[in-house]
Amino acid sequence: MWMQISHPGRQVPAGMPGVVWGPSAVGVELGRHTRRFGRPVAMTPEQIVATVERFAVTASRAEQAGFDGVEIHAAHGYLLSQFLSPLTNRRTDRWGGSLEHRARMLVDVVRAVRSAVSPGFAVAVKLNSADFQRGGFDADDAGRVIAMLEPLGVDLVELSGGSYESPAMTGRPADASTVSREAYFLDLSADLAGSSPLPLMLTGGISRRETAEKVLAGGLAMVGIGTALAVTPDLPDRWRVGGEAAGRLRPVTWSDRTLAAAAGMALVRHQMRRITRGGDPTVGTHPLRALACDDLAQRRALRRYRSWLQASA
Predict the structure, then answer these.
(1) Phi first, then psi: what are they for 16, rounded to 5°?
(2) What's the CA gap between 43 and 82, in Å, rounded?
């Protein structure tokens, strides 16, 4: 079991206490939903160095707690992904400009994590195959970053894509191709697999064994099935005996892409909460219900967080 470690950077709700950080003072732009996110300030060099160290401390504590590895999240528009993208990283110092400079924080985090844990402790990186935004981080950039990670002791790179502004990671439910509806980033990932010096894992909506086999046949080493497991927790056992998933979550085809993406992620979290309470997943849950339940859960968590901050002051 690996712990995924991350920093949200600018992708922080406006109601969260504290300062919102980013590589540059470039906020999330989502039209009428922009106000839902805090406005970031550019990190100082001292804050960047301190954040790198916090990743290493987190990885060390994960190993002490009994995890077998960590995955450093540098995708989906979170902080390390923001540093990689020229759209959100407009710095002119050693952390901005060329891709080598924009990748510096990720490289430093990987080095610090690798040195903070034992040799047998796995270190993986989650990376966008592309941001799917014009002028942003693209597949060529991903290939170059993977090459930078190879000599640093990285065991696996998981490929995904998108961000809050371009939520490709939530899929394309209207796509005519079943494989495209499931393995969202298969084409990009297969191209990267041809030149990657590291084992690659593809994630993104995969729920059918046939699709998983196509992913592996394309040169990928592993298949991620997180969303599918939220619906069918015993899916690997079913695949072993020729079975398939119990179903798929209801597709969210709303015209508001931001709300549709939020509802899609809320549907997954709703099923995970049901499982943790001992219940069974319900594939027919309406997206509006899941979104409302998710909003309530986050409001409760924020109240607990505020209380903790006050008690810790």
Answers:
(1) -75, 135
(2) 12
User: 271 vs 35, 280, 291, CA distance in Å?
Assistant: 28, 8, 12
Residue 106: beta bridge partners?
A: none
Query: Do residues 309 and 17 make contact, with C-beta atoms less than 8 angstroms apart?
Result: yes
Task: Tell me the pLDDT tens digit for each residue of 25-47.
Answer: 999 988 888 898 999 999 999 99
Query: Among residues 76, 77, 84, 196, which one has the least CA distance to residue 143?
Result: 196
**Closest to 200 measured CA to CA, from 175, 223, 180, 230:** 223
**Spatial separation of the C-alpha atoms in residues 145 and 127, rounded to whole Å:** 9
End-to-end CA distance of the chain: 34
User: What pLDDT, in 10s, does the model give residues 232-274?
Assistant: 999 999 999 999 998 888 888 899 988 888 999 999 999 999 9
Look at residues 86, 87, 113 and name the one whose alpha carbon lies nearest to residue 102.
Answer: 86
